[in-house]
Structures are given as structure tokens and as C-alpha cells.
Amino acid sequence: MATASVTQQLTKSIALSAATLGATILLILFPRPYKPSLTLNPMAARSFVLWLHGLGDSGPANEPIKNIFTSPEFKSTSWSFPSAPSNPVTCNYGAVMPSWFDIHEIPVTADTPKAESSVLEAVKSVHAKIDKVVDSGINPNNIFVCGFSQGGALTLASVLLYPKTLGGGAVFSGWVPFDSTIMDRIHPDAKRTPILWSHGIDDRTVLFEAGQAGPPFLEKAGLNCEFKAYPSLGHSISIEELKHLESWIKSRLQSSS
Q1: In a domain? residue 218
Q2: Is 149 noted as a catalytic residue in this protein?
Q3: Would residue 203 show up in a list of annotated catalytic residues for this protein?
């Protein structure tokens, strides 16, 4: 299903079919048309946010998210909204679509089979992006990886397996994309990276039980996780979630600047 233009996304909801696990981002109607902001030169940035979209979505379709972050602290933040490569997806009968890794079934439950080898390949790509930002001079403590749905699952995997402490990882409507055997591969420094996990109780695409399985997994792995449940929220990202993310990142930027 084709996505609307960026301007249209800010004058009505962004809606993708549930079968693609794309986000419905509940955005406020802005009083003026959206004008894309200039991309901050990474060399001048003091912080970095990487946003990973859901299955069947695209990076550019999610760029309006950064306009929610109006605090002065984000004036020196560089954002990146990459698009997933096109791959066949098992849960959609092998159809080729933008996908970070394979997914075996929808709805995703706490017991959904894991496509670990596919996830680990995607993690390599995310780590390469993070390495490039670190090489540009940004402190890893000021790097934040965030993602929705499939992108949330990839966020979790990427943060856990990165060999440095990052500013944080934020999972929206995601799930744990591997089993407990991965714990032996988690670097001690990665265990100091805080995790924010947000999930709608009425999610029928990535079931709430899949989100609830995250904190116990992370606790067992030795990580700190803040879990926030949103009543009456389906497979969506709300303004409330994004404003909390803004505060969550801002507090960590202040402590790690």
C-alpha cells in the first residue's frame, strides 16, 4: 500500500495495512504545512537518533516524527531514517516488500518462531551506521536507536549486540526477535544501555503479550528497561509516546553531554 506524501502525513494519520506491520502515527494537525528541515551536518551534531521503521514502510515516511521533538536540546541532534531493503517475507506468503528481516507469522506473539539468522544480518547493517556516527566524533552515550514494530525488534537486537554503551534504545510495539541463547553474546558494555519499551494494550498485530515478554528477558540479561503500557492503543505510535520519548532522550542527553 503506497504511503502519502510527507505533507499529507502531517495533515492526516499515516495509515498502512496491518499486514505490513507499518505504523499508524497519530499526529496532531499542525497549524501550518510541514516544511522539511535542513539536515544537520553530522560533523556539527552532538547527538544522533536512528529511527527504524516497520515492515512494509519506509524511512522518508517516518521523517515527520522528528518535528515532535521541539526541545532546544534537539537543535544539535542529527537524525537518520533509513529504509529497509526489499526482501521476501514468510508471513506475507513470500511477497517482496521493505523488510529488515524475515517474519514467520502475524500476529506476532510471545511464542512466534524467531528468524535469528535474518535478524543478525540486519544487525550488521545497523551497527555499520552506528560505527560511522561514532567515527564522526559523536559520543556513543549520545546515540539513540529507536524503532516501531519490526524496527523495534531490530532496535532491541542492535542495542543488545553493540559492543559499546549507547544513550538508549527505544522499542515501540516490538518484540524479542531471538531466544535466550543470545545472552552469551551480549557485551558487558551493552548491558548499561537503558531501554524504553512502549506498547499498546489493544495491539492486534504484535500482541501485547509479545511486548510484556520483553522486560523479563532484559532483566535476565542484566539490562534496565522502562516498560510503558498504553490503554486503548492498537498497532500505532501516539503523540503521547513520542513526547515521552522526547523527555526520555532529553534527560539522558543532559547526563551524557
Answers
A1: yes
A2: yes
A3: yes
Domain at 67, CATH number: 3.40.50.1820
Residue 24 lies in a domain: no
Check residue 25 and give its pLDDT. 46
Catalytic residue selected from 149, 173, 198, 238 = 149
Residue 36 has pLDDT above 60, yes or no: no
Which residues constitute the domain of residue 56? 47-251
Residue 36 lies in a domain: no
Closest to 120 (Cα-Cα) out of 97, 96, 101: 101
Going by C-alpha positions, the residue among 247, 165, 163 that lies closest to residue 198 is 247
User: How many domains, in total, are found in the chain?
Assistant: 1
Q: How far apart are CA 198 and CA 122, in angstroms?
A: 22
pLDDT at residue 227 greater than cutoff 70: yes
pTM of the model: 0.86
Compute the distance between CA of residue 217 and CA of residue 183 in angstroms, rounded to an integer.
Answer: 9
Cβ burial 91-130 (10 Å sphere, 16+ → b, else e): bbeeeebbbbbbbeebbbeeebebbbebbbebbeebeebb
In the predicted model, what is the mean pLDDT of residues 73-99?
A: 97
Instruction: Report how far residue 72's alpha carbon sits from residue 215's, in angstroms, rounded to the nearest whole number.
Output: 31
Query: pLDDT, tens digit, for every residue of 37-79?
Result: 444 555 568 999 999 999 999 999 999 999 999 999 999 999 9
Asked about 247 being catalytic, the answer comes back as no
2: number of Cβ within 10 Å: 5
